[in-house]
Design brief:
By secondary structure, the chain is α/β, with parallel strands linked by helices. The protein has a single domain (28-267), classed as Alpha/Beta hydrolase fold, catalytic domain (Rossmann fold). The protein has helices spanning 2-21, 70-81, 117-134, 146-157, 174-185, 199-202, 225-237, 257-267; strands at 31-34, 37-45, 54-59, 85-90, 138-144, 164-168, 211-217, 241-247. The protein is globular. The termini are far apart. Keywords: Hydrolase, Signal. GO terms for molecular function: serine-type endopeptidase activity. It comes from Pseudoalteromonas luteoviolacea (strain 2ta16). This is Prolyl oligopeptidase family.
Length: 268
Amino acid sequence: MNSVVTLISLHIILMTFSVQTHAKCKDIESGVLVNSTCTVVETYKSTKLTASPTLAIVLHGDSPFWNPSVQYRVAQYLAEKQENVISIGMLRPGYTDDFNKKSDGERGETVGDNYDDQRVSQVGKSIRALKKHYSAKKVVVIGHSGGAAITAKLSGDFPDLVNHAVVISCPCNINAWRKDMLKRNKYELFSGDLNISSPVELAKKVSINTKVDLIVGKDDDITKPYLTKEYYEALQKHGKNVSLHVIKGDHNIFQNEQVISTMLAAIK
């Protein structure tokens, strides 16, 4: 009898722990729960919506020194400026935002390790759940820097999911980018190659029905333009629907007027 009581008590404790752990995912507009993993989001909606809206997902960069929030500002702006859009700023796995909310998963060391298959899969499955929930007719994924690497990898790993990808300032050849960053920052965690797939290697898996917009600043010394150009050439080689825009500016072009214009066109 005592063993039965103990098992029941343990079950109650585990259920309570689960509810507490995923309390931030009780509402899909603030958190997406897939396979007991919660990914934090902020949701913004156009004033005019149909039963089948466009779903726009905005992903932030690596943000090694501060909590990211730009994805929320961009998502809110897009929803305000375009009709029939549900625009979502997504907090990447392991990150904490300015509201002290944290997505499940490991943040990593922000040296390319957090573009691995597990983190990409968490983001992709969360987007798939959102697409189903909102009956979205179109999915647009927008990412800057590290978020661009994840966006590009999603386009290859989830080819049936992404209709339009806007890839901004991308480290699209991850190990080449790591070599650049080691020279630039002298940070030893950039040493050596990671056993990780890069967007350039996944280009052939991108659907021919997916539109890809690549944007990079001509003076970007963090994700140098050649990294984006390599990905562009790989997509072209495999007959994908891709355009390349090398614009004025450095790495910090996420809210550049021309970049925002490309985003608005993508979600139209």
